[in-house]
Write a structure and sequence with these properties.
58% of the residues lie in helices and 8% in strands. The chain folds into two domains: 148 residues, no CATH class; 72 residues, no CATH class. Helix 5 crosses helix 6, helix 7 packs across helix 8 and helix 11 crosses helix 12.
């Protein structure tokens, strides 16, 4: 059943794009970045690419990988233009409903009207707040991609309204923990839209369970954030 709407809203438009520069940068960045919350995303990178990228500058890596045309078979094995069109259609079907539920849950209007999603092969599906984009793997199935989109849009919305003040209050690291853990609400309020559960990181297991329990008691997002702060700082 769809949420009742007081005002008609415009949905956030997600444009799916394959960009070779972004693809190569994500591969290089995944290899050379620190583990995220104890998870090593570089394990997903094929060994030949890992060797070319490890401890190299991005320009050196890009030149080497372009010279030997490694990874080209990946792009030829998937019709990325058709995939992009398909994913846009699939997300457009639920985008308005997703945005409205996010508004109702947080009490804040969704303000992002256009966000890009760059298709990648391997690597981490990170996001760029300033340039308003995130990555999704074109090897993921449709349901996993919907979950990734929902997860990243939840992050963007949180950054738009909450992250800076929370960071000023408890520091960046704990603010990041709360931001990541709160996506467990996708499993409660959005499960009929995305189907695939948002599992999160092992580091946030206790916090995510705490969030689920608090949300059952009272569906008040602002209070929930305050409760998370107390949980982490007590």
């Amino acid at each position: 059943m769809k949420c009742a709407r007081l005002n008609k809203i415009k949905m956030t438009k997600i444009s799916f794009i394959f960009n070779k520069e972004k693809e190569l940068y994500n591969l290089w960045d995944t290899v050379n970045s620190k583990n995220s919350y104890g998870f090593n995303f570089s394990e997903r990178i094929p060994n030949k690419i890992f060797i070319l990228a490890k401890d190299k500058t991005f320009e050196d890596f890009k030149n080497q990988i372009e010279n030997i045309k490694i990874n080209d078979y990946l792009y030829e094995s998937v019709d990325l233009k058709e995939l992009a069109k398909f994913l846009e259609i699939q997300w457009d079907r639920i985008s308005e409903e997703f945005d409205e539920r996010l508004r109702l849950i947080t009490g804040k209007q969704v303000i992002d009207k256009k966000i890009n999603s760059f298709l990648i092969s391997f690597g981490k599906c990170s996001y760029n707040l300033e340039e308003r984009y995130f990555f999704v793997s074109f090897f993921s199935n449709n349901f996993d991609i919907k979950r990734i989109i929902a997860h990243e849009l939840f992050h963007f919305h949180f950054h738009n309204y909450y992250f800076k003040s929370l960071q000023d209050k408890i520091g960046k690291s704990l603010a990041q923990d709360i931001k990541e853990a709160l996506t467990v609400l996708l499993n409660i309020e959005f499960k009929d839209l995305i189907f695939v559960p948002d599992k999160g990181y092992e580091k946030h297991k206790d916090l995510r369970e705490f969030i689920i329990n608090q949300w059952k008691i009272e569906k008040n997002f602002d209070k929930l954030i305050e409760d998370c702060v107390l949980f982490l700082t007590k």
